[in-house]
Amino acid sequence: MRIETIQEHTIILAPSYVHKQLRSELLEQTNAVANLSIMSVDTYLAGLLRHTYDAYIYQCYVKLQDMELTYFAGVKENTDFVNEVVSFVDDVHFYGIQDEQLKESDVYLKELKDIILTLKEVPCASKEQMLALQQIEDAKHILIMDDFASARHRYVYNILQSKGASIQPTKIVKPKKSFYYVLNKKEECEAVARYIIQHDIAAEQAKLTMCDESYQPFLEQVLDRYKIPHSFQSVKKKNRLIFSFTSLLAYYLQPDSEHLAALFETEVFISSKAEAFVSYVRSFNKTLDDDFDHIAHHVDETKHIIDEKTRSNFKQLELDAREVKIEVQETLEKLLACSLQEAVLYIEALLVEQSSFQTLEDVQTIRQIRTEIKIAYAYLNEKTIALFMERLEALQTKQTKEMVGMQIGSLSQPLKETDYHFVLGASASCFPGFAANSGLFSENYVKQTAYPSLEERYEMHVKQALASLQTSKHVLVFYATSGLDGKVQQPSLEIETFMDKPAKPYPLPFSMKSYTVDTNLDTSYGEALFKKDGAYHGSVSSFEMYTNCPYKYFLRHGLHIYEEAKSPFDSATTGTLMHYIYESLTRTFGKDYASASVHDVSQLIAKESEALAKLYVQDRARLQMSQKRLLSSVMDNLAYLESFEQDNQLMPTEFEHRFDTVIPVGDEKVHLRGFIDRLDMNRDFISVIDYKSSAKKLDLKDVRKGIKLQLPTYLYVAHQNFARRPVGAYYYSFQNGKQGTQYAKLNRGKLECQDDQQRKENFEKSKKFVGWTTSTDFPVMDASESFIDGIGRKKDGTFSAATKIYNIEAVEQLLIANLERIVEQLRKAKIQIEPISCNYCKYQDICHNRKDGYDRDMLPVDQDIYIVGKLKEEESE
What we know:
Structural class: alpha/beta
CATH class of the domain at 176-233 and 401-505: Alpha Beta
CATH superfamily of the domain at 176-233 and 401-505: P-loop containing nucleotide triphosphate hydrolases
Strand order of the largest sheet: 7-10-6-11-12-5-13
Radius of gyration: 37 Å
Strand content: 5-15%
Largest sheet: 7 strands, parallel
Number of helices: 31
Helix content: 40-55%
Number of strands: 24
CATH topology of the domain at 176-233 and 401-505: Rossmann fold
């Protein structure tokens, strides 16, 4: 930027983001010419005013509300509608659009014109500014730095130039052009960082233009990782003080549980138990008016469904929440007792009193809030408050005061000249970034008015955009071939024309070097963390957790970092309710439980649902709606189980059987504890039934890997503790909705519909008991051989090739081998982050792992695993 000649008393019009740079260069170039003024166009226009118009938007809003409207009555309070109309009225004053140019060809446009004419009566800054501009006789003392100007600023430039103002054009150079494409936005940022490092470019000698603001978080992440100094010209981020103010005001306007919880994300309310308070009020829909004793009164009524530990956690949650409520109650009650105008002042005072002012920006933010309150105060009411909050939130975009390192800006804010200019996002959807008018005042609406034409604005916009690419010795343009939504993107036509050559792929490496963190501990920690009283304690599910992810096991059972107490009513609670219903029916009616009447079942469901509804008040309607569906599901299952019990010689004997078993594994011991849903037995035999809410299966490979040990463990416990021969262990699924039943099928081009009997047979196939059979005497449990999955016979009475009957001794040996392997790893403190699956894991915020799919070695087995059945080659691997 060079200014060859300049006079005293010159006014230089330039965008505010270049003022500091411009002052530095002027000191070097002008030999300290006196009385120079540097200002933005908006500041210059503001200086032409003799009156203030700060409350213009509020005055327009109030005037609009006073209008009797027909077609726009439903939206006149909508802030988006108000802003759109007021913005156009401002354009009417600015460009001198005449009343007769406004459309009125139908009743809607006529009413819209009436709105515009009414709002034109409100005194407006643009009107006074345009009159003042027209009255200027000599503007030779004004120098315009021609930069990327909006249509309005360009209009002002033209007026001033017609009155003698001079313009300093952007210095255009002929850059060396490089044009690249990569896969996505992240790779664009990666390519820039690598280019800077590979070519040893000083950060101060590079600038970067984002054609799309969504690049900002990607750039921050990548440039920070490569430690490349950088500054964003303007940053839009959540200002904590403005957020605190609007959150308090939102609570005042609507003091419900959600807004109450949001207060603890602000600067005003800070408590060590805030997390408990937020969880409590959101989970149980509490407000400040409620007594925080809801859980204490009702949680123990749910003892059949919610376990003791969870109930205890709920009680502690309520105690913590009550403590926080006492801390904040007085402050919030004072707020709610205020009138709206008083509330705004009270919140501002509260913010000043409670907040810790950490930066100069905080002080400036408070000043901005006070200024906006002063402007809006006289107009504040229940209708204008939304506009007030919207204007406060708009203050969150800030200009960067000190630009260090590589400067990053947007197309509309060109940066200073540097040796290297990187451009990201040069796709057809982002460059040149011109936006045609849409909405109520579309291009079609303004076409016949004094508003600058679409062609004129587009041509100037593209000219400025391309000029901004010609200010450095090197310009490197990038675009991504696909967006975040996966859709294919094409390069901008204007960019392709400017670059005058096709883009080529940027040579990024195919894979980044990965770094793994060794989380394994010194072996001396193994026994200290996991061994207690001479044994390794746990439930079967905890040892399955270790197999799935050793690190998760370490966090949960080594460091005792527990997942957050589950508060809302969810599908798991429904599953527990189903368990209890079957357990209760079996305890009450014994083997005849499946003959229970609809009345008996509905009474049981209603009783437990009511207990849950008292606790989960916000889910009462949902619970009531689900009762009918639950009853239907239970009765369908009971109808099937009634046939099963008629075929079953065993008697339901133990329900929710609690076991506490010590299993020797090599030189160590495993102390296993848990519950078995149901044990059926007679004098000689015993079987295990495990209820499930969804379909499950037991695969030999999963057992050999240690992934599924539940049923083998239950078999071991049943065999060792009851001195009976195990028939088998099985899952029984309550699920009714996913049987894949076909109501019709095509057979040689003909549609054959299934009758009720065929549909019943398909349903029964889907309801079979799935698991491992461990005795050829299984007919004591399934005389007709139609209820246990995986058992089949040929016509001659021999077992089919697909039939598998397991050797109980071999199964127990396989279980012990799995436990021995797990104990050996725990003893060595092996807690590596190598999960089989990360689905639904609540510990990812700790480990930050984003890779799963690790496999586990299978323990060896031989043909002895089966009594009936042949070990396949792939099973023996």
